Amino acid sequence: MNNFMSNPRYNQILATAKVLFWKHGFKRVTVEEICRESGVSKMTFYKFFRNKKEVAKAVYDMVVEKGYEDFKAIMDDKDTPPRQKMEQILILKLEGTNDISREFLTDFYSNPEFGLSEYIEQKTREIWVNVIGDFKKAQEKGWLRKDFKPEGIFLFINRLFDIFEDESAAELYDSPQELVMELSRFFTYGIMPRENSDNGSAG
Fold first, then answer.
1. CB neighbours of 171 closer than 8 A, spacing ≥ 6?
2. Is 37 helix (H, G, I), strand (E, B) or coil?
3. 3-58: pLDDT as tens digits
4. 10 Å Cβ neighbour count for 189?
5. CATH number listed for the domain at residues 53-190
6. Can you give the pTM of this predicted structure?
7. Distance CA 29, CA 131 (A)
8. Count of alpha carbons within 13 Å of 196, Cβ hemisphere only?
9. Per-residue pLDDT tens over the stretch 61-84
10. CB 109 within 8 Å of CB 120
11. How many Cα neighbours within 13 Å face the side chain of 40?
């Protein structure tokens, strides 16, 4: 992917494919539609990607890597108080879930037919190694609970899409974004230091 990052047509394909995938999922989007909406020929598309699955993987890589860069910038900011950091992370999460459809979540995360779920699981594991390390550094600095286990969030995230497929969750929340933010707020504020906590950390 990095070989083409400076090519405007490559980036236009990625940006267009992201919008289409987020809105319609993987199955309903065609290469022809991506080309038409991005204003490139099929010849140009196949110069960069072998098939639709490859562009889907590239889109996911782009989003995940950009998300981690933004997360890292928040975590490394020495001038921002801990609670404000967590609020910024929530906003980042909200922006990252904008326009996500249930079709996207099903096709990308749950449907083995398309072969994307295994790739996404692997990519998620790779990025979470870094995220867990950042959380542990934050614990050492005292702005996350000492008894909080960062690895536990990864376990919860792996079960997240079981919740999305639950019919009762679909009835309770109007959109995937609403459910994502509900869980994000729960996890985020649940890992902040407690006032007068037993471990001596102050909020």
1. none
2. helix
3. 777 899 999 999 999 999 999 999 999 999 999 999 999 999 999 999 999 999 99
4. 12
5. 1.10.357
6. 0.79
7. 32
8. 0
9. 999 999 999 999 999 998 998 888
10. yes
11. 23
